Structure formats: C-alpha cells, structure tokens
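Quick one, tokens below. Sequence please?
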C-alpha cells in the first residue's frame, strides 16, 4: 500500500510483481480491492499497478467537481511518479473512460489498451437518453448507498451461486462517500473522445459482457474507429466481468498481452 500526491489530493495505489508495467483502473463506486481475482494471476507476469481513483477507496475524496480529464491527469501523475516505461492499461467502465482519455492525450505512454464494458463517449442525445440519465441521477441522489449497493448487486450478480459475491459487493458499495460517488457519476455524462480515437495506435482489446448495460452492437461501432482493435464477448457475464467471470477474463487478457509482447519483439 502506497500513496502519492497530485494537485493537493493524496491518492492510494498498490504495486505487485515485476516486468513490463500493467495498470488496472476500476469503475464507479469501486476500488483497487475489486481486482482481487486478477492481482495474483497478473502479478506473476507483470509489474502490476492498481490505483484508487480520486474519490474512491483509500484515496482522498475532495469536495469538488470531478472530471474524466482530471482522473486521467491523476493517472498521468502516477505514471510519472513511478517513472513507468510505456504500460499496458486496462480500464473497467468508468476506468475504461479514463483509459480512453489517457490514450488519446498521451498515446506514447501506452503499450496496449484494454477496455472492459465501457465506451469512448456518454452523450445524452435522445428523449430516451435524457429520461434514463434523469432517472439514474435522481435515484443516485435520493437513495442511500446501502440501497444502491443492494440494487446493483442484485442486478449484476443475480445467480443463486453468487450469493456470497452479492453480500460482499453490497457491503463494499455501501462504504462509498456519497458526495464523491455523485461527483464521479456526474463526470461521466456529456464526456467523450470518440472523434479522437484514431490517435490510439497501440493494440487495443475491447471486452464486452454479453449482458452488459449497453449492447455489444454499440461496442462493435467504436471498435471499427480504432486503428488496431479487436472485440471479445464474454458469455454469461454482466457489467462486472472481472468479478463474475474471472477465469475467462484473466485468460482473455493474458492471451492478448502475450500476443502484444510477441508482436512488439518481432518488429
């Protein structure tokens, strides 16, 4: 467990293993704790860095507006703090948006990019979009984090054999700071870098759960805009794929990373 400071905010990160750097960025209301099923596997092969983004986990939770650009700037500061060579970067959901932002702004810092159940923009365009976001925005403000945690766990881990995972994740979500959670939620709406995706020249893997919030078809559209990207769909999974399908997720990611390393050596 280690800390560094960026723009007056103390941020928590953890390092494991040796070799080429591999950075994991968690999603909204999560923390580096939620990579627990990846850390032991990935740390055998890479210098693994997991970070709690501002407002989450053991990082500070400043009372201010958050932005995807700000989260990305924190990540850039961590890369510079650790003096990392170009890294493999993996982002889940909100973490995927942060990874996209870093990749379009600082493409030279990425050896590869892996985006999990995420998108390069969240634009509210249609009446239906507005209604969906208004509903989620209102519920996030009205409901307690305990209630939100229960609802999310029931939705993401519905199977009878996932009862322990449901209980554990409900308890974790309930520990979130409400102000930081809402500020992070607000940072997502209206953000986008889709028109700049051609800047991402590194090999890119897009992982989508078959039952993610957004359909696979939406991922197929933006994968075509990336210069060197492939899409893998993981079956019987919802939004938290690293937790509900850890073995398939880990194998898929490791196969991709090994392929990137091999191709890089060949050139």
């Amino acid at each position: 467990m280690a800390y560094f400071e960026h723009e007056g905010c103390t941020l928590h990160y953890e390092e494991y293993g040796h070799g080429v750097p591999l950075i994991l960025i968690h999603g909204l209301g999560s923390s580096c704790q939620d990579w627990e099923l990846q850390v032991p596997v990935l740390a055998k092969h890479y210098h693994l860095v997991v970070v709690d983004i501002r407002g989450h986990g053991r990082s500070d939770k400043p009372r201010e507006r958050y932005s995807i650009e700000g989260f990305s700037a924190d990540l850039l500061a961590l890369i510079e703090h650790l003096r990392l060579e170009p890294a493999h970067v993996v982002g889940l959901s909100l973490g995927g948006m942060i990874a996209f932002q870093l990749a379009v702004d600082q493409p030279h810092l990425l050896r590869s990019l892996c985006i999990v159940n995420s998108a390069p923009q969240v634009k509210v365009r249609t009446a239906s979009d507005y209604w969906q976001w208004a509903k989620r925005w209102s519920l996030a403000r009205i409901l307690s984090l305990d209630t939100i945690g229960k609802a999310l766990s029931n939705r993401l881990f519905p199977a009878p054999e996932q009862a322990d995972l449901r209980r554990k994740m409900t308890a974790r979500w309930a520990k979130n700071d409400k102000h930081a959670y809402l500020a992070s939620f607000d940072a997502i709406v209206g953000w986008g870098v889709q028109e700049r995706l051609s800047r991402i020249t590194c090999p890119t893997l897009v992982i989508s759960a078959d039952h993610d919030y957004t359909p696979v078809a939406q991922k197929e559209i933006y994968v075509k805009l990336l210069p060197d990207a492939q899409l893998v769909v993981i079956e019987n999974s919802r939004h938290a794929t690293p937790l509900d399908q850890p073995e398939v997720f880990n194998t898929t990611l490791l196969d991709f990373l090994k392929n990137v390393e091999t191709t890089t050596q060949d050139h």
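The chain has ten helices and eight strands. Strands lie at 2-6, 9-16, 21-25, 47-51, 87-92, 110-116, 204-209, 229-234.
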